[in-house]
Write a structure and sequence with these properties.
mainly alpha; 83% helix
Length: 229
């Protein structure tokens, strides 16, 4: 029996495709939900850091945000998964998928914080001051004037963050989550034939990332067209 026949048997006959479909779903859920959580956390931290330059009270929170980003950017995602799984969540009955989403969201928040901070600072400071002179509060001016422009500037970078998260989910299986990598690893270990399953795994990730890249490029083109108008 050839390596391809063994792979086909495990994938189709033995029902391995069910794990693959579940792993694909979980991989995309972890990446997308992780990015959404990261955008929320990162935006809050970025706003606090920017406000910390103007307000002494916000400066204390800004320092906390800086420590947070340093910790999560300075340690590998797999180490964070293991710490949360075996230490912080050890006595908590939590679903593996939810656990992975939380960890990936916290990790993404550290990177998105820098992305959003750069996006906010890329907006001309004079626009914020103009809003303040019109009677807007600092928060109102940020929401109505600065945020829309900042988010528009960082959408391509956020797309790249989504791609990075999707590839990083390959380690989610370490916390009992059926991700795409773990699904193919189970197929490979069933008969100790690793070549074909891992080649197909690489192909799956390549196709997913390729689709995401095309979508991001289309969004970028649309944004450029809207700017010209």
């Amino acid at each position: 029996m050839s390596k391809w026949d063994v792979f086909y048997e495990q994938l189709i006959t033995q029902g391995g495709y069910k794990d693959v479909l579940l792993g694909l779903r979980n991989t995309l859920v972890i990446a997308v939900c992780g990015l959404l959580i990261g955008i929320f956390i990162g935006t809050v931290i970025a706003c606090v850091q920017v406000a910390g330059k103007r307000n002494k009270i916000a400066k204390g929170f800004s320092i906390a945000g800086t420590v947070y980003t340093a910790v999560f950017r300075g340690t590998p995602i797999i180490v964070q998964l293991l710490i949360f799984h075996y230490i912080l969540f050890q006595n908590i009955n939590i679903d593996g998928l939810l656990e992975a989403i939380i960890v990936f969201g916290l990790n993404s928040g550290a990177y998105v914080a820098e992305i959003m901070r750069g996006g906010i600072e890329s907006v001309d400071a004079g626009q914020l001051e103009a809003g303040r002179t019109l009677g807007m509060s600092y928060i109102t001016a940020m929401i109505k004037i600065v945020f829309p422009q900042a988010i528009k500037n960082v959408i391509p970078t956020l797309g790249n963050e989504l791609i990075a998260l999707t590839k990083d989910t390959s380690v989610a299986g370490y916390v009992a989550t059926m991700d795409l990598t773990r699904a193919f690893r189970l197929i490979a270990s069933a008969k100790y034939e690793y070549m074909v399953p891992y080649l197909m795994l690489a192909l799956c990730y390549f196709i997913i990332i390729l689709i995401m890249t095309v979508v991001i490029r289309l969004i970028e083109r649309r944004l450029k067209k809207s700017e010209k108008r």
